[in-house]
Write a structure and sequence with these properties.
Strands 2-3-4-1-5 form a 5-stranded antiparallel beta sheet, with helices on one face. By secondary structure, the chain is of the alpha+beta class. Strand 2 and strand 3 form a beta hairpin. Helix content is 39%, strand content 14%.
């Protein structure tokens, strides 16, 4: 039997969506040339990105059809109480952490991070005139972070049950590899079945041959996938640690690392982002 116990990891993620027409024109104009924006500071992390296509050809009258996604994360030694998940509480806390952060798109009267936090954590009194009976797209999401221990096996002994994706290895968002790993898992199982499943001319043993195929696929799947996935989990853990509140010196070390990383050629990421499942299956030796 496979048992997975989820433990609170000491992190709480918050985020939501903001219609572009509510944002200042200066900030909206900057989004036409921006991709995903992620900022690390001494007091944690804050990110935002367009969640719908938006370009220089988009007219101002269409802004209410587009939204910006935003997210942040902060440390919490225990699960937040219901009173700590309210929009007003989260707004107050995030402003204490990020209100003083600077952006090239700040205006004299309002900073970008203050604007995003105030709009992303709306108070009830601020919503009725905006929604006009429609679903509130600015609903705040408060998501405590859980962690699953690494399971010793992702398959049954018979090989008839194979877990893939988060069912086998819950991937935290700090690696950006959750969906990718699930797709790799599924493709790996398919390629292994193609390699080991007996051909039509070699099915004399019928059920016995099929059972052996499932066992071979399960064994190869774990052998090929566990090492890679565990490395990605390790990277995700290190990335998550970089979002914690840190000292002045710790911030400088982290920022220096990011600067060095930006100077290196993109091929250093090939191991993570250019993985070729088919080649791994071809090179696998029983």
């Amino acid at each position: 039997m496979l048992i997975s116990i989820h433990n609170c990891r000491g992190w709480v993620g918050v985020g939501g969506f903001i219609p572009l027409h509510l944002l200042s024109p200066t900030f909206v104009a900057s989004l036409k040339g921006e991709g995903v924006n992620m900022t690390f500071g001494s007091k944690g992390f804050f990110g935002y990105s367009l969640s719908t296509p938006y370009s220089s050809s988009t007219s101002d009258t269409d802004l209410d059809q587009h939204t910006l996604g935003w997210w942040s994360i902060y440390e919490s030694p225990a699960l937040p109480e219901p009173s700590e998940r309210t929009s007003s509480h989260v707004r107050t806390f995030l402003l204490s952490q990020h209100k003083s952060w600077k952006s090239p798109y700040d205006t004299p009267s309002l900073g970008v991070y203050e604007e995003l936090i105030n709009l992303g954590c709306p108070l009830d009194i601020e919503l009725p005139a905006e929604t006009n009976g429609k679903e509130n797209v600015r609903e705040l999401m408060v998501l405590p972070r859980y962690q699953s221990p690494r399971m010793p096996s992702w398959t049954s002994q018979s090989g008839r049950i194979i877990l893939i994706g988060d069912a086998a290895h819950t991937m935290p968002p700090d690696s950006g590899q959750g969906a990718s790993c699930a797709v790799e898992d599924a493709l790996m199982v398919g390629c292994l079945l193609g390699r080991f499943y007996p051909s039509e001319g070699n099915q004399e043993n019928g059920k016995k041959a099929q059972e052996e195929t499932f066992k071979k696929v399960a064994k190869a799947y774990q052998s090929l996938r566990m090492g890679r996935v565990h490395k990605i989990l390790d990277v995700a853990k290190r990335n998550g640690e970089g979002k914690k509140q840190t000292s002045w010196f710790g911030q400088k070390v982290r920022d220096f690392f990011f600067w060095v990383l930006s100077l290196l050629p993109q091929l250093i990421h090939d191991g993570a982002y250019m993985y070729k499942v088919e080649e791994s299956v071809e090179q696998y030796k029983e």
